[in-house]
Amino acid sequence: MRQRGFALIAVLWVIAVLAGTVGLAMAATGLGQRESFNRLQLTRGRWATAACLAIAQARWSQHRLADTATVDLGRRTRCRWALADVAARLNVNTADPEVLGAVLCPDRHRLCLLDTVLQRRANGPLTDSLPLAALLGADSMAFALLTVQGPGSVNANGAPPSLLLSFPGITPEAVAALRDARQLGHPIGSLDALAAALSPAGRAALLAHYGGLARQLTFSSPEYALTAIGWVQGEGGPGGLHATLRVLAVPLPDRLAVVERRLW
Question: Which CATH number is correct for 2-85+223-263, 3.30.1300, 3.40.50, 3.30.420, 3.40.1350?
Answer without folding.
Answer: 3.30.1300
